[in-house]
């Protein structure tokens, strides 16, 4: 159960995090630790999930927390490159209605 998180800064206010591996109860704290400070520094965060092969409710909670934090500041969270399985999970939970999703990476 490993997760890898790489940060790519496009500009002062736009950041991309490339996440790979599994985002679950054991690894979600690592994602939260990397993502939440960025929600206070960036106007837009792109979360590239193309290499995420599993996410549980703890991972979804991290996404919701980041979304809320950015929204308060007028920012935007964008999920990119999701697998059909992850897309289905977000659709079932209704998150596709509130979080921006883009095809491709």
TrEMBL record:
Transmembrane segments: none annotated. InterPro entries: Anti-sigma_ant, STAS_dom, STAS_dom_sf. Keywords: Phosphoprotein. It comes from the Bacteria. Pfam families: STAS. Residues 4-105 form the STAS domain. SUPFAM superfamilies: SpoIIaa-like (SSF52091). Positive regulator of sigma-B activity. Non-phosphorylated RsbV binds to RsbW, preventing its association with sigma-B. When phosphorylated, releases RsbW, which is then free to complex with and inactivate sigma-B. Belongs to the anti-sigma-factor antagonist family. This is Anti-sigma factor antagonist. It comes from Salinithrix halophila.
């Amino acid at each position: 159960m490993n997760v890898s998180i790489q940060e790519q800064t496009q500009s002062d206010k736009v950041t991309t995090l490339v996440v790979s591996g599994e985002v679950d109860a054991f690894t979600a704290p690592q994602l939260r630790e990397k993502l939440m400070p960025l929600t206070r520094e960036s106007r837009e965060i792109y979360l590239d999930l193309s290499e995420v092969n599993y996410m549980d409710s703890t991972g979804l909670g991290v996404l919701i927390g980041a979304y809320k934090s950015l929204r308060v500041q007028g920012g935007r969270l964008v999920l990119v490159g999701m697998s059909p399985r992850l897309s289905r999970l977000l659709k079932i939970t209704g998150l596709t209605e509130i979080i921006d999703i883009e095809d491709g990476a």
